[in-house]
Write a structure and sequence with these properties.
By secondary structure, this protein is an all-alpha fold. The chain has one domain. It contains 1 helix and no strands. The radius of gyration is 14 Å and the shape is rod-shaped.
């Protein structure tokens, strides 16, 4: 990743997106369980 002026904020945004995606996948897995 490039180290630009908005680096930290970009990392935080990516982390939030990844966390949301992980929770979504977990919820789908739980829904698929019997």
């Amino acid at each position: 990743m490039l180290n630009s002026v908005g680096g930290p904020s970009n990392v935080t945004c990516l982390t939030r997106f990844a966390t949301r995606l992980c929770f979504e996948l977990v919820d789908r897995a739980k829904a698929d369980l019997p």
